[in-house]
Amino acid sequence: xxDSSPSPAVKPVIxxxxxxxxxxxxxxxLLAMFSTVAIVLxxxxxxxQQKAETYRSTIDVPAVAANAADTAGFTPVAPALPEGWSANxxxxxxxxxxxxxxxxxxxxxxxxxxxxxxxxxxxxxxxTSAQTGDAPVTGSxxxxxxxxxxxxxxxxxxxxxxxxxxxxxxLTGAADFEDFDILATGATTQLAADSGHASGEASTTPTxxxxx
Length: 212
Known about the structure:
Elements: H1 16-46, H2 61-72, E1 86-93, E2 102-108, E3 114-120, H3 125-131, E4 137-143, E5 146-151, E6 158-164, E7 167-173, H4 177-203
Antiparallel strand pairs: 1-2, 2-3, 3-7, 4-5, 5-6, 6-7
């Protein structure tokens, strides 16, 4: 019986030219990768991440409201709000298929949440329900002496609805009640001021007498 010794492992031999080409490919790939990373870093450096405050618009809500007043037939509310609040849009919406025209303002609160304010003198139950996301009435909330109807559902925004004379105001958003209270108070304060101003103008209007 003859012993057979294992054959020695054969080591592959790479030609010098092939090794040089392989090294050149690796170096080229690394250089391309570093170049790409450098370009990305430069772009990020030139365009730093913006904070939420940077995106806050500077909408002049009272000015837009004044322009809309003649078309609206009433003075849209543009409440005075604390520092840190801002509006990212303000517009007058002409009547749609539901026949309701309304004033519409989007407010970013001081705590960086959002509440939409919508006001109309031609509101109807269908429009009000649509503005509240068809949320059911779940209670009421008294704010600055005014009783607002509360509508909300487990998943979705909450809404407060106020009907004062011919005016309906709907506040809708995901903000805390504290922020809703601030906006609701500002809106009703202006409503009361506008109502008092209109009453004052009516009382000072001279009444014509018969024959004179």
